[in-house]
Amino acid sequence: MDAPLPPPTDPFAMPPMVQVAEHVPTPPSRRAWPWVIGAVAAVIAVVGVVVFATRGDSDAGYSLEAAAEAASEAQNVEFETTITQMGTTATSTGRFDVERQLMAMRVQIPDPVDTEFDGVLDIEGAMIYMDASMMGDVAAVVPTKWISMDLSAVPGLAEVFQSSRTSNPLDVAKFFTTASSVEEVGMEDVRGEQAKHYLVTVTMADVFAKFPELGDTIDEMGVTMEDEVVYDVWVDEANQLRRVKYATTVNGQEQSMDTFYESIGDIEPIVVPSPDEVTDISDMLGG
Q1: If 237 and its partner were Cys, which of 61, 114, 132, 142 is the partner (CB 3.0–4.6 Å)?
Q2: What is the 3-state secondary structure (H, E, C) of the chain?
Q3: What CATH class has 20-274?
């Protein structure tokens, strides 16, 4: 079983599903757009980072165990994620195709660059695609609607995605056997639906014992994490994940992630931009 990786710190939604022409983002400055691309790479890496465990009655509604099992079997998901790290908050609404290993999202980063853009992550192809408008005044020298970046332009990023497939926000289901404790908080409203709220405590030593390759990768990356992480998890009556959130410290930096699961098993198809619509900027980033 593949295990997702910890932070660094999901982007994007593309045509024909998203009518980019109707959206006019505020572009970053020339000096800011490389930071945006770096932020995108960081945000992507966190989407699959949620690590939680569960125990419960899988036959009843609002079951954490049944929700985790359903998540592990789902072939696609639509979601909304908000990540805060190093004083910056990025919100993305997106879709993930498990079989094709594609993610499409729209990202909003208000500070420090005040930008919003669409994009697609092709994990198997090791490429990130973003709409060229995010480059601001630099976009004038780009003859296509989309830009792309080879994941290898960010050291170690391609290996992270291709070896461990960190981007699936449903990967929370992989760790349900490692919880040190599960507490039922009670019934709460999640965007108009009743859901049962759980507090799930995960001890990283238990996670590494079950998934030793994850511990090895963390050591290789030089990542330091808290010994224990508590996840807030909401499950609806149909035994589907509705929301997962957490806050922790990674490499001395506080970060939090809050994910709403809008639809599991039914999404609009994800389409990768055609080559004639793309300009590769990997060389501009030193890749």
Answers
A1: 61
A2: CCCCCCCCCCCCCCCCCCCHHHCCCCCCCCCCHHHHHHHHHHHHHHHCCCCCCCCCCCCCCCCHHHHHHHHHHCCEEEEEEEEEECCEEEEEEEEEECCCCEEEEEEEECCCCCEEEEEEEECCCCEEEEEHHHHHHHHHHCCCCEEEEEHHHCCCHHHHHHHHCCCCCCHHHHHCCCEEEEEEEEEEEECCEEEEEEEEEEEHHHHHHHCHHHHHHHHHHCCCECCEEEEEEEEECCCCEEEEEEEEEECCEEEEEEEEEEEECCCCCCCCCCHHHEEECHHHHCC
A3: mainly beta
